[in-house]
Every structure is written in structure tokens, then in C-alpha cells.
Amino acid sequence: MDSASPASGGQGHIGYSVVPWKRGRGYATRALGLFLRDVEEESLPFVELITNTTNESSRRVIEKNGGVFVERFRGPDQQGGHEELRFRIPLPRPLNATPSHSSTARSGPP
């Protein structure tokens, strides 16, 4: 994960990916939640996250971590000009906002 300080303009990148056979178990949600706990120590007022309109999984991860929809917009032409969604997570988050590890059992490949 990349990060940036407020002095550098506050822009950075938060990325997450889960191998297909481990998806749906809450790993990305938990990882973002843990990352946000560290970010809260930086005294930022919020974090903004952008996802593609077709990426429902990422949208759910953001929303489960307190993300609030801000806008739908067209991304830069040099990145394909796709429709994207912007979410904002206010900081600090309530104490109960960090998702716990999912204990949902799933069948299929380990």
C-alpha cells in the first residue's frame, strides 16, 4: 500500500486484492479496516476511495468500513475514461467501525 502525508497534498493509493478462492471471507474488509486504524493516527479528517462502477465487491468493502457515496464521475482519459464512484470515510471512525474477521464457513477450494 502506498500512503501520503498531508504535506504532500494528501494523495496516496490504497489497493487490495484477494485470490479468487479466498474471496467472500471478509479479508479485504478487515485489511482496509486495519489500515484505516493506522491512518487515523495521522489526524486526517477523511479518506477518499475510488472504485469502478462495476466493482461491487470493492464497493461493499468500502461501505462496510463506513464509506459514504460522494459522487459518480468519469475517470481520466489516460486511464480509460471509465465511470467511477467516489466514497469518503470520515476519520476518526467510531470504535465499533473496524470490522471483525468473518467467521463464515464456505465450501470449495481452501
Q: Rough shape?
A: globular
Structural class: alpha+beta
For the residues shown, what is the average pLDDT?
A: 82
User: How many strands, what sense, and barrel or not for the largest sheet?
Assistant: 3 strands, antiparallel
- Number of strand elements: 3
Beta percentage is: 15-25%
Enumerate the spans where pLDDT stays under 50 for 5 or more consecutive residues: 1-8, 101-110
- The gyration radius over C-alpha positions equals 15 Å
* Major beta sheet, strand line-up: 1-3-2
Tally of alpha and pi helices? 2
Order of helices and strands: HEHEE
Measure the end-to-end span: 26 Å
Proportion in helices: 10-25%
Write the layout of secondary structure elements.
Blueprint: H1 27-40, E1 46-52, H2 56-64, E2 68-74, E3 83-90
Antiparallel strand pairs: 1-3, 2-3
What labels would you give this structure?
110 residues; alpha+beta; single chain; 3-stranded antiparallel sheet; disordered C terminus; disordered N terminus
Summarize the structure.
The protein is of the alpha+beta class.
Structure description:
- The longest helix has 14 residues, at 27-40.
- This protein has a domain at 44-94.
- Strands 1-3-2 form a three-stranded antiparallel beta sheet, with helices on one face.
- It has helices spanning 27-40, 56-64, and strands at 46-52, 68-74, 83-90.
- It starts with 26 loop residues before the first helix and ends in a 20-residue tail after the last strand.
- The chain is an alpha+beta fold and 110 residues long.
- A hairpin with an 8-residue loop joins strand 2 and strand 3 (83-90).
- It is built from two helices and three strands; from the N terminus they run αβαββ.
- Residues 1-8 and 101-110 have low confidence and may be disordered.
